[in-house]
Amino acid sequence: MIRIQPEDFDAGAEIARLNASTDVGAVATFTGHVRADDGLIALTLEHYPAMTEREIARHVAEAEERWPLLGVTIIHRVGRLVPGDRIVFVGVASSHRQAALEACAFLIDWLKTKAPFWKLEEGADGAAWVDARNSKSSISDDWRSIQSRAVIRPRLFAGAYPPAYCSAMCSESWATVGLS
C-alpha cells in the first residue's frame, strides 16, 4: 500500500495491518519526523502525484523482487509540516527478520535520497527550496551492489526544482530517465 497524503497517520495501526497474517515472522518499520535543524520553522513538500506514486511503486516492486516480502506500506506526507510532525512511514512484513530489515532500509534510503518530492524550508531568514540530494546518491546506489535475485538497473531522477518553482514546465519534463 502506498499513500501520499497531507494528513497524519497512525504508525501503530499501520503495523497492526502488516502483522495481520500468521505467516508474518517480522515487521520492520521506519517512522520519520520533521527535525528543527538550523532553526527550521516549517517544511513544505510538493510532488507530482502520478509520477511520485509510480516511482514509489516501482521501488516497492524492486524490493519485492529482491526479498521475500508479505506486505509493504509506504506513507509519505505532503503539504506544510512543522518540527515534530511525522513525515514518512515505511513498514515491511516478511517471514524472516533479515529480509524485513533489509527491505525497509532499502526503501527508506531510496525515499530519502531519490524520491521525487520537492522541499521548501521556512526559517527565521525566509524560505528556500532544498537542492536535490545528489551528494547522498551513493547511499541508495550502495544497494545496487548488494547481490539480489533481480537484475537491477540504476535510475536517475532528472528534476531538480519543485513544481511551484517551475510551474511553466510541463509534467513530461519531470520524467524519470533510465540509464543502462
Describe the model.
- 27% of the residues lie in helices and 30% in strands.
- It is an alpha+beta fold.
- The protein has a single domain, classed as Aldehyde Oxidoreductase, domain 3, CATH 3.90.1170.40.
- The strands form three sheets. Strands 1-4-6-2 form a four-stranded mixed beta sheet, with helices on both faces.
- 27% of the residues are buried.
- The model is unreliable at 134-138 and 147-180 (pLDDT under 50).
Please provide a brief summary of the model:
The chain is of the alpha+beta class and 180 residues long. It has helices at residues 11-18, 49-66, 97-113, 137-142; strands at 2-5, 26-33, 42-46, 69-77, 79-81, 86-94, 118-123, 126-129, 155-157, 176-178.
Shape, principal axes of CA atoms: elongated
Radius of gyration over all CA atoms, rounded: 17 Å
Measured as a percent range, the helix fraction is: 25-40%
Secondary-structure class? alpha+beta
CATH-level-4 superfamily name: Molybdopterin biosynthesis MoaE subunit
Range of strand content: 25-35%
State the end-to-end CA separation. 29 Å
Number of beta-strand segments: 10
Order of SSEs, N→C? EHEEHEEEHEEHEE
What's the structural blueprint in terms of helices and strands?
Blueprint: E1 2-5, H1 11-18, E2 26-33, E3 42-46, H2 49-66, E4 69-77, E5 79-81, E6 86-94, H3 97-113, E7 118-123, E8 126-129, H4 137-142, E9 155-157, E10 176-178
Parallel strand pairs: 1-4
Antiparallel strand pairs: 2-6, 3-5, 3-7, 4-6, 7-8, 9-10
Helix pairs in contact: 2-3
